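A student in our group prepared the protein record below, which I am reviewing. Thanks in advance; the entry in question is below.
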Amino acid sequence: MIPAEFEYSKANTVDEAILALSLSEAKLLAGGHSLIPALKFRMSRPSMLVDISRIQELKGIHEEDGEIVIGAATTYAEIMADDYLRSQLPFLAAGTSTIGDMQVRNYGTIGGSLAHADPAADWPAMVLATDAAIEVKGPEGKRRINATDFFTGFFTTALDENEIITAIRIPVPPEGTVGTYQKFAQPASRYAMVGVAAVKTPGGKVRIGITGLTEKAFRASAAEEILSGKALDDNNIDAAVEAAFRDTEPMSDRFASAVYRKHLAKVYLRKALLEIA
């Protein structure tokens, strides 16, 4: 398990990283928890690794123009410890605490997780439920991609060639907004065999992000339509759970069959809805 030979470059700015990507068959290195195993198995053979983990403009959490802005290179541990984020959306810190182990949380970054787009990753469900936008930058400048449009398939996203995620932008929630992230974790990896993020605003709008069930994370729009503006009572929750996955095609692998995954999705959607109720 020895990687193929590659060069290493440390970028000090986002523009430096974008330039390095455009000049070679490079891969970005942030936390590295997904990239390094791929290098060892030679599933990925970049000519260069561009280290972006110390670019200051990609770090930190602040409020700007009515949005919570999380820098793409902000680690899970930093997200868990941020007082402002915990005061606005405490379920994000709680959900982050379920990811991996302490080493993963100390080095893993939110931008790296979203760019990798593992169908069993936790962050995709949470950014979907918070109605986030993904801010990216490339040779043509900056643009925003709604989280609902960002995940396009199995380990694939709407990122164009040589683009870098720079920040995640979440609308500041109205006071009284509640949220939760519930998952059935694979015991060894702690990835989500199924994960459900649910958010309810004081006005009754409900948003639900699902991960682990299909080849990409998605919004459970059928369930949202049933629940939004209505009481989260047993009848409405039952109807939402039945409608949520009617047209989905669950994955089947060595960890769980498609039938079992769909069963888990219904169980954990119900748990999430009862929590925000």
